[in-house]
Amino acid sequence: MEESAPFMSHRQASARLLAAASRHGTLDAIDKGRLREMRSRGRKLAAGEDVVRQGDRPIAAVLVVRGMLARYHTLPSGDRQYLAYHISGDMPDVQSLFLVVMDHSVCAMGQAEIDQFPLEPLRELCRQQPSISFAFWRSTLVDAAIFRQSISNNSARTHVARLAHFFCEQFHRARDAGLVQTSSCSLPISQFQLGQTLGMSLVSVNRALQVLRRGKMIEFRGGRLDVLDWSTLRSTADFDPMYLHIA
Amino acid sequence: MEESAPFMSHRQASARLLAAASRHGTLDAIDKGRLREMRSRGRKLAAGEDVVRQGDRPIAAVLVVRGMLARYHTLPSGDRQYLAYHISGDMPDVQSLFLVVMDHSVCAMGQAEIDQFPLEPLRELCRQQPSISFAFWRSTLVDAAIFRQSISNNSARTHVARLAHFFCEQFHRARDAGLVQTSSCSLPISQFQLGQTLGMSLVSVNRALQVLRRGKMIEFRGGRLDVLDWSTLRSTADFDPMYLHIA
DNA sequence: CGCAGTATTGAAATTTCTCAAGCCGAGTGG
DNA sequence: CCACTCGGCTTGAGAAATTTCAATACTGCG
Question: DSSP string covering A190-241, please?
């Protein structure tokens, strides 16, 4: 499943890296030039394939090119707890720059494509170009804000609100990344996995889903989310996108 | 309640800042010198007092000197969801360096004492001294790892394991910070607040607590945690401190 | 001493999970 | 082209966990 990408894609890959960093800070010409020098290896992922595992000591950072990646804990029972989802333009494990051992795994939710950038050159780049460092740093801080929201979501909201909030977040982020057409976005997650994300059983997910459907707020099937009534969905969820710290 | 600290304490405060940074990276003489130049304002906090609130745009970063601080979300219902606790030597809101608006609040759990370091000089310092930047960055990454663990804890563990895990984490971190004497540490949190931390009702907290007590694993009263049987507590909790990324 | 906040207990009400069966839809091989 | 199969979705109903309500202790502090 792993394969080197052709040479041309190196330029595309570093352009994508530049875009990822630019989302979180202002870069000058030097910063941009240095980012464009970064070399990477492209890789296609099969559905469900792991990119890194809990306990690994990764040597490269991942940038999502296409598809969706997820971070998850493997519990002693063997069960998973999904922690976050990442779409095109996201870097799910920038933290590896400074946390040597992975405390969670990263996998592809459906077919996906990534770039892998060796960590050492990235670290060196961050050392030399503070603005780049700050941009990546900020991206990890937004990740943390999203984790905080998940704590509240999974701990303090009703099942229906919890699901609604999850959909709001995914949809909002997809839209921000330019991945929404006609109020629908890709969300290749099964109801069972939704349960492992939100701390609910499969049956509870299914029933909460039906409430949202009957309320004509969303449609969710075949790995795709359609938002039919954003305003109602949003208020059902208590969704306030402030925590995403976008612009 | 706010008051300037005497001049002498400035030197102590910057030494504490140096210590906080040193926990997360190797600093050279220049780094250390620059850190020692940082000026701060000491502040005493009453029990329950807020340091920053959701929506604020803080201008200073907090370093805990004494006591315990907590981060929390305020939900639309008015209810709180506690997200993390911080003890001496921790910096609960380094993220404010790059996330302008607070997405959560920070309060004192009991009486506490903090140093406040203006953000702008800190940012400038990070820009000039990459090692310092990396150390603070890393501290925010460990925070994020702890948030991830909280997602799993609150979503996928039984009430008893959840509580046990929380105690393991607090105790382990207190020990690492040198705040444990004779297997007990300060933990000024009421059972109700424990519920708002772990996503359980007050009654459930109380009953889970009794299980741990009857199992002779812990004693918890008057804001103090005694660990009577670490090994059993740890296995009850499935606690693996790896995620704390302590050297 | 007594108040106020915190902890404990019991029991009913509710939510959530588990179990188990049936359904649906896409892909496969006859 | 259709039956078959597999994974994922849906449904019902009983079991179990959890919350809520409400009353009773406890404790530290003024």
Answer: -HHHHHHHHT--HHHHHHHHHHHHHTTSEEEETTEEEES-HHHHHHHHT--G
User: Token match 């997910």: residue?
Assistant: A205
pLDDT in tens, A139-166: 999 999 999 999 999 999 999 999 999 9
**What is the predicted pLDDT for the residue at B223?**
94
pTM of the predicted protein model: 0.95
A155: which nucleotide lies closest, measuring CA to C1'? D18
> For residue A130, which residues of chain B lie inside 8 Å, CB to CB?
126-128, 130, 133
Are residues A145 and A216 in contact, defined by beta-carbon separation less than 8 angstroms? Answer: no
Measured between CB atoms, which of B81, B134, B242 is closest to A155?
Answer: B81
Nucleotide nearest to A189 (CA to C1'): D8
Residue A78 is given by DSSP the state S
User: Among A157, A152, A163, which Cα is nearest to A205's?
Assistant: A163
Of A50, A53, A20, residue with least CA distance to A38? A20
Q: What is the mean pLDDT of each run of 10 residues along chain B (247 residues)?
A: 50 92 97 96 95 97 97 96 98 97 97 96 98 98 98 98 98 96 94 98 98 97 95 97 92
Neighbouring C-beta atoms of residue B3, cutoff 10 Å: 9
Q: Measuring CA to CA, how many Å separate B29 from each of A127, B32, B33, B137?
A: 17, 5, 6, 20
Strands B41-45 and B50-52 come out as unpaired
Write the secondary structure of B58-99 as one string of H (helix), E (strand) and C (coil).
Answer: CCEEEEEEECCEEEEEECCCCCEEEEEEECCCCCCCHHHHCC
| Rounded Cα–Cα distance for residues B63 and B247 (Å) | 21
**Quick one: tokens of B145?**
């790892």
* Adjacency order of strands within the sheet including B60-66: B41-45, B112-118, B60-66
- Compute the residue count for chain A: 247
The Cα-based distances of A119 to A9, A59, A95, B245 in angstroms read 19, 6, 10, 18
Quick one: pLDDT at residue A198?
98
Query: Comparing C-alpha atoms, which of B92, B107, B123 is closest to residue B189?
Result: B107
Name residue, tokens 């990235």.
A122
- List helix spans (H) across chain B: 8-22, 29-37, 119-128, 130-156, 159-176, 191-198, 202-214, 230-237
Chain B residues inside the 8 Å CB shell of A143: 144
Taking the CA of residue A124 and the nearest CA in chain B, the distance in Å comes to 10
Residue B102, Cβ density class (10 Å: 0-12 exposed, 13-18 middle, ≥19 buried): buried
Band of residue A5 on the pLDDT scale cut at 50, 70, 90: very low
Percent of chain A at pLDDT exceeding 90: 93
Q: Are strands B105-108 and B218-221 parallel, antiparallel or unpaired?
A: unpaired
